[in-house]
Request: fold
Amino acid sequence: MDSSSSGVSYKKADASYFEKRGLSRYAGVWSLWALGVGAVISGHFSGWNFGFATGGWGGMLVAGIIIAIMYLGLTFSIAEMSPALPHTGAAYSFARTAMGPWGGFITGLCENVEYVLTPAVIVTFITAYVNSILGLDPVYSPLLWVLFYIIFLALNVFGLELSFKVTLVITLISLGVLVFFWISAIPNIDFSRWALNIGVGPDGKAVELPEGNGSFFPFGISGVLATLPFAVWLFLAIEQLPLAAEESVDPKRDMPKGIILGIITLMVSAFMIVLLNPSLPGVGAFHLSSALEPLLDGFKAVYGDSGVVLLGLVALTGLIASFHTILYAQGRQIYSLSRAGYFPTALSITHSKFKTPHVAMLTGAIVGLGVMMIIWFALGAEQGGSIIGSVLLNMAVFGAMFSYIMQAISFILLRKNLPHIERPFRSPLGVPGAVLTIIIAVVTLLYQVQDPNFTKGVLWVAIWFAVAIAYFAVIGRHRLILSPEEEFAMEHKQAALNASAAKA
Reply:
């Protein structure tokens, strides 16, 4: 079968092709909720706090609200699209139906960058925590990377049920840790003295105000906008939930509930952590603006240094939850593009017993680890670690933000061009919510460009894109498979054409 208008060619695979690529259904509402929250929750343990250096406490709070609005627009959009297009492809599937094969491939490629590199970044944070807690020499960090990858790949490969149970348990533990911190912190906070202890020095950079009581917006409105990229870390990866569509018991019913419950949970947690963590005596917004372990610092402020090992291990739970769940997403994302022929089809073969995309997960892990190892051994432990934690992080964020724009555009186009497809859930924010998502995402990207690490990250993303697009242009587009995502898109495109012809 040929689709010359898009410059791609299809073949219809036989039953044995899909038998080798079968998935199992297990996930209900709470499994989906845990998958979404667990993927994000590490961002409440560390990373978000660097925004204090660009916006102060007030800037971080308002930036968080703006980004929360962006994610509301995004999550309500995907909550509508996912049950309407209940396929593993998620973002690629939405864009494929709305914008054709090339639009689907580019969107899928954006997510591919995010899901391959984000676990790599998180595992470096996990290793840094472990090294700090146990006093290990950082020179052995690569061995810990490999160990964590092996453990959590195994949990993801050896059965869907096991993977989702682990996800639910560690997500609940992570949230429990955060709730325990909030309860511990509330009686001790001194907001005006500590949260507002950032001023602006002669060089325009943040300085500590010893007595606190500083400005709510020490850097003005520009500081709020400059803080938007850091606020993204409070919600990044919630969008992975639709990747579980073909492993959900009832995606049309459960997927919207899981997504909406997830974003509400994260919004409450984000507000509490931004309010309480910098308000503790001896901590403060200025210190947190450069802290690698903000939650651990908060625990120390309340309970002292005596239980630092235990508290450190507790603070690890959020990072572990995100690492585990994003490995899940990584495998499904590569699987869906491979099953449809955009990536080599061998990557989508699933385990004969456990029905999990083990080849895709292993391949994604090898690429992520390979990139880390090359950087580490080429630049050395100190510089290499810094690059992994900055440039790779910015590469992942760029991929994510660009995919948000593409998904919001897909939502608008689907509302316009396919108004009659079954939509078990309709976004209450509609097209205006999607437009707002696009605007905020574009503004966030513009302010990220000011970070030199972001510029380096975008350069390497461009190389990643160039290689993948060259493969697709020369080979992949001639070998596409009529997977569920592709069949759905083509059937509804033809139905729309027939409807237009009938009106004419």
